[in-house]
Amino acid sequence: MKYLVNIGLETHVQLKTRTKMFCGCLLSTESEPNTNVCPVCLGLPGALPRANKEAVKFTVMSGLMLGCKIARHAEFARKNYFYPDMSKNYQISQSDRPLCLGGSVEIHEGGVPAGAPKRVRLNHIHLEEDAAKINHYARHSGVDYNRCGTPLMEIVGEPDLASPDEAMEYLQKLREILVYAGVSDCNLEDGNMRSDVNVSLRPAGSDALGTKVEIKNMNTFKGIHAALEFEIARQTALLEAGGAVVQETRRWDGDLGETFSMRTKENAHDYRYFPEPDLLPVDLAEEQVEAWRALLPEAPEAKRARFQESLGLPAYDAGVLAAQKPLADFFEATLAAGAPAKLASNWIMGDLLRLLGAAALDVADLKTVTPASFASLLKLVDAKTINGPTAKELLEEIFEKGGDPATIVKERGLAQVADAGAIEALARQAIEANPKPVAEFRGGKAASLQFLVGQVMKLSKGKANPKLAADALRALLA
Questions:
Q1: Sign of the CA dihedral 261, 264, 269, 274?
Q2: Beta 100-101 vs 90-93: how paired, if at all?
Q3: d(Cα 370, Cα 399) in Å, to the nearest integer?
Q4: Number of neighbouring beta carbons within 10 Å of residue 402
Q5: DSSP codes, 255-275
Q6: Per-domain residue ranges of the chain
Q7: Mean pLDDT across the chain, nearest whole number?
């Protein structure tokens, strides 16, 4: 490779507090435009801000989950600029005294599971207020200030990422950790998580970073990956032709699949940061930080490792189950209700996720199938009280209507036929009624046995034990 890629992400995450960062206005994505506003978040003369303690708590918890050093003294600053989405001509943010310093996110080299572990460093995490939302219509544009003042955490990563695939894994891992911590929904479609993407190229063998180009306000993983691929190719072609990369801010046009220049990139001094005169510094006692540390959940990576080491699950199973906290919680509650670990893993990753996908639901939305009823079903399967097809039908029924599988099996007489004599009689009937598949099996066509097993299942109305049916057929056909 003639050029090496350096990518750094500045990820903005809306915190799910009840009210805004510096006032008491409620946060709601469903309200009519410009209804959740007040003199403070609109920046009217004489209005004084007051910091949201819950937002400080969520930022510190995020920093603890990411291995940051928590500052005992942090300050807010004014970042001066004017856009239509910031009515007071400045944003209250943090500059040289943020709440969290350092930290990291672990990914794999190349962004693939087979790659060696790689630690992507964080520079810091600071807390600020979000801007308003500009809505574009057919003939005009409007500014909705409901979003203005939403607590916004900015996670500034170092330029340690070397490819679009690594950037994807970094963002996925970061999202996973923050959702586990309960500080944000990180729903990209709702704008809860957005990233500014910084990318530069340097000659192979050089330690000095190349000229940085920023792509602003990317809110989809797919878009970030595509924008990075395009920008890397654009800069490579420019350098190959003897040109120079200009430090600038560009925007991504997803329809055209290209980035376009917006403006020459500002530097920190262009924003004229100075300490926010209307807010006191944030001073955190050790006892307060430790109290918030006690609220942290088990980290996703630790949960994956525990699922493998303590429960004996394969790495793939552990990865799927731990990727979403509600799914991991459902799995562990199912085990607590008595289901075997590997059986629960198989059924969750297979049939349950299939049903959820078809219904466009998340496991957190699931009301009909509880961990207790799911465990009841799996215990019936494990004890061979019911066979696989019956269990699948039962799961579909309780997914639709709810209910206790054990009660349903008892009331309807769905228990599996496991009596060897009864199954042998059914096998004889299947053999007598199907001479052609019998001849094919005896002639060496092994697949014909499955057809005959199906006939036994049909005769038993789905209640025969398939393994015992296969064994009986083999013995009779021998």
A1: negative
A2: unpaired
A3: 9
A4: 12
A5: TTTEEEEEEEPP-GGGG--EE
A6: 3-290, 300-412, 420-477
A7: 92
Determine which of 63-77, 277-291, 330-344, 386-400 has the lowest per-residue pLDDT on average.
Answer: 386-400
Residue with the two structure tokens 């009624």: 433
Question: According to CATH, what is the number of the domain 420-477?
Answer: 1.10.10.410
Largest Cα separation within the chain, whole Å, is 95
Structure tokens at 55: 């937002």
User: Are 78 and 91 in contact, with CB atoms under 8 Å apart?
Assistant: yes
Burial of 205 (C-beta count, 10 Å sphere; 0-12/13-18/19+): exposed
Cα 323 to Cα 276: distance, rounded to the nearest angstrom: 39
The two counts, helices (H) then strands (E), for the chain are: 17, 17
Amino acid identity, position 425: A
Nearest to 54 by CA among 94, 27, 72, 77: 27
pLDDT band for position 382 (cuts 50, 70, 90): very high
CA 315 from centre of chain: 18
Task: Report the distance separating Cα 470 and Cα 437, nearest Å.
Answer: 14
